[in-house]
Amino acid sequence: MTGDFRELYGPVALVTGASSGIGQAFAEALAAKGFNLVVVARRVDRLEALAARLAQAHKVNVNAVQIDLAAPDAARRMLEACAGLDVGLVVSNAGFGLKGAFADSDAGAMADMLMVNCNVPIQLAHGFIPRLQARGRGGIIFTSSIEGLMGMPYSAAYAASKALVNALGEALWAELRGDGIDVLTLCPGATQSEAAGLQGIDISTLQHVMPAAEVVAATLDNIQNGPLFFSSEYYRASLEKLTSLPRRDALMMIMQSMKR
After folding, report:
1. Residues forming the active site
2. Could you tell me the domains of the chain?
3. How far apart are CA 51 and CA 60, in angstroms?
4. For the whole prediction, is pTM greater than 0.85?
5. CA 78 to CA 62: how far, in whole Å?
6. Terminus of the chain with fewer CB atoms < 10 Å: N or C?
7. Over the Cα atoms of the chain, what is R_g?
8. 190: nearest Cα among 208, 174, 205
């Protein structure tokens, strides 16, 4: 299976947001499958440590590229970093969230979030799709969120940004079906990473928290089963219950839960 996967989507994969959490787990899993990697994040010290560890453990080439994904030219720089490389898998994973009352959110932080969560996936896909089409095979994975499937009070801007990712991924899944390019949008639930802490969330208070490695393993196993993939059955079922309710009732239930 590992050899077949690398033949379909290798030999090189790009992973954004690879310095921690799900992005790091993607890099680790793909290196174990024999992929050479281009890993991108802002924290170059973590990237370089990851690159050295994976190169030694799996005898693969890992290029660590420091880019602030909130910068307007971030996607262009990633495309340039991959010029001349046979990239068969693009993992657009980088993202961050903001929790709290929308009116209290920092406008600059929201602008950066839209650049990272929305602009980068759009521009990366736009830049890489012609390359993947020319190869005649490949894959794109977008990391979204369960929150992208409906409005989330006290997580309004983040949920809105992930709704864009879901819509993008679904549309491209259909557009590229005849080109040999698999598109999967990952919608994880609660996942063990530092992202929750950065948003002021105590991960120990959440239910059914999954290790990032399990989320990634399941995602790679389901790359051909798009357009959306829910790594957590618990959170998928919870969302289905919410969306079966009248929208007003569902939103009020979420609002009360988020306030707590």
Report:
1. 158, 162
2. 2-259 (3.40.50.720)
3. 9
4. yes
5. 14
6. C
7. 18
8. 208
